[in-house]
Design a protein that fits this description.
alpha/beta, about 15% strand, six-stranded mixed sheet, 15 strands, binds pyridoxal-5'-phosphate
Length: about 500
């Protein structure tokens, strides 16, 4: 039975469903598999599997306590017509690279890969652990997570979801996506403050024991949809297998030969999933970690010191604007061979001094990672170049990955097929993408630019963007940071 433990303390007998339900361990550590499972199938077979089959075969190795019929139910409901292609994660090859497009879900960003299945895992976990309270998902968002969580949890029985976003801190498209959200169990509120204010406000609600008790008596239990939940991480392992199967199926490599992956990284969830895939037996050679100018991770891979003491930079790849990559804690656990004391110490010093350093053994264990970063100007230059030379339009996050990929290739001359993880549709960051191509778009609003972009790249306009400019606004609430708790209270009657 695959069981879970905490990164900061040895725990026993934590089942997957308990870890999903609980989200985070009591002493503040993250749940990790006590040992990473090995694949029990032949990679040759996967070439012919549909995404759902692959998802079942991979996820079941991690979530052994979920029975076959229940796991299949979760998967069936997650990867259905919400995605605009049956392939779920198409692999698109251009002259210079392969792009694994993870943006074909309801909110056109890769968070859909995990957040369309998390609600079903939560319900299953509730049932298995005899939890009778309704689950209330509380989330502060800088854009992508909020909408993906709303889509995932909308109208899911036994759950409610409340999302707080910085009133002035998200793109026009992102805001419109959230405030037009349907579903009686959803609430979206703009906060007068920046993302950190939202996040702090929400964390205070989570930490308020008295409030937790009050809410519990009303039959509710708080949970979080952010990427520290193991229920979000595991579904992300699947698409690395999908990418490999596609490369093999298209004759780009022979089964057994390696591939590289290039991942635009923020909270370190996506690339950690690639690391898990590799540990399970998928032939990945290099895990290429791409950052924007908030390059804490680049420095970490260069020097072995994680140091968040620096200015926070706002970039055109906002979903990667982050100085504390929470999921890195899981990597520390694995590369220290499960040394929970060491991880707890490092996390303490991160909290106290804003930094920590890993030892030589741990450094050796991250040799498969390669770090790189790109600033906004480079990001824009690559968007323009790849559009003009290869006819492929990347979003800003994907372009950061491309920039780092290009540097890696030039530096190493590595000829291993590389897959660039494409985390958002260009439609989601219309303004930055269009102005990268031509500065004449500078003063045009996002909604007009959607149509301009559509004219440029043709094909079908993603459903998520269709008529977004004229959709009915359902959520008009705006609040001060100190009103967050009361808003939550009045929604939970
Ligand atoms: C969340 C996000 C990322 C970063 O992913 P992590 O798992 O946090 O590293 C990159 N690109 C986009 C578009 C995102 O929404």
């Amino acid at each position: 039975m695959s069981l879970y433990t905490s990164t900061r303390k040895k725990l026993e007998n934590i089942t997957a469903t308990k870890a999903i339900l609980q989200g985070i361990s009591e002493e503040g550590g993250l749940f990790v598999p006590a040992s990473i499972p090995q694949i029990d199938f032949n990679l040759e077979e996967t070439i012919h599997w549909e995404y759902k089959e692959l998802a079942y075969r991979v996820i079941k190795l991690f979530f052994e306590d979920i029975e076959e019929k229940d796991l299949k139910y979760c998967i069936e409901n997650a990867y259905d017509e919400k995605f605009d292609t049956q392939e779920i994660t198409p692999l698109v090859s251009t002259k210079s690279a392969h792009f694994l497009e993870l943006f074909h879900g309801p909110t056109i960003a890769f968070k859909d890969m995990a957040l369309s299945i998390l609600p079903y895992f939560m319900l299953t976990s509730k049932k298995y652990n005899k939890e009778t309270k309704d689950i209330v998902i509380l989330t502060a968002t800088s854009g992508d997570t909020g909408k993906a969580a709303l889509e995932g949890f909308a109208n899911v029985e036994g759950t409610k979801i409340i999302v707080f976003f910085p009133e002035e801190g998200v793109s026009e498209v992102q805001k419109r996506q959230m405030v037009t959200q349907e579903g009686a169990n959803t609430l979206v509120v703009g906060v007068k403050g920046n993302f950190d204010d939202c996040q702090t406000g929400v964390k205070e609600v989570f930490a308020d024991k008295l409030f937790e008790k009050e809410v519990y008596e009303k039959n509710y239990k708080f949970s979080s949809a952010n990427s520290i939940n193991i229920g979000r991480l595991v579904p992300q392992v699947v698409y690395y297998f999908a990418a490999y199967a596609k490369l093999a199926g298209q004759g780009k490599l022979k089964v057994g030969e390696p591939m590289n992956v290039v991942v635009p990284t923020g909270n370190f969830g996506n690339i950690l999933a690639a690391y898990y895939a590799k540990q399970m037996g998928l032939p990945i050679k290099k895990l290429i970690c791409a950052s924007n100018t908030n390059k804490v991770l680049f420095d970490f891979f260069e020097e072995g010191t994680y140091d968040r003491n620096r200015d926070f930079q706002l970039t055109i790849s906002p979903s990667m604007d982050i100085l504390i990559s929470s999921n890195l804690e899981r990597l520390l656990y694995h590369i220290s061979n499960g040394d929970t004391e060491k991880v707890a110490q490092m996390m303490d010093s991160l909290k106290m001094d804003g930094k920590y350093t890993i030892n030589e053994t741990m450094k050796k264990n991250i040799e498969d990672f390669y770090g790189g970063y790109a600033d906004d100007d480079m990001t824009k230059a690559y968007i323009k170049q790849i559009y003009e030379q290869e006819g492929y339009l990347m979003d800003t996050h994907t372009a950061v990955a491309y920039a780092v990929y290009d540097k890696y290739i030039k530096e190493t001359k590595d000829e291993t097929p590389s897959v660039i993880i494409s985390t958002a549709s260009p439609y989601k960051f219309t303004s930055s993408v269009m102005t990268a191509i031509d500065s004449k778009y500078q003063n045009t609003d996002d909604f007009t630019l959607l149509d301009e972009m559509h004219d440029l790249i043709k094909g079908e306009m993603p459903r998520a963007m269709d008529q977004i400019g004229t959709k009915e606004i359902k959520h008009k609430g705006v609040c001060e940071v100190n009103e967050i708790k009361n808003i939550v209270r009045s929604f939970l009657v």
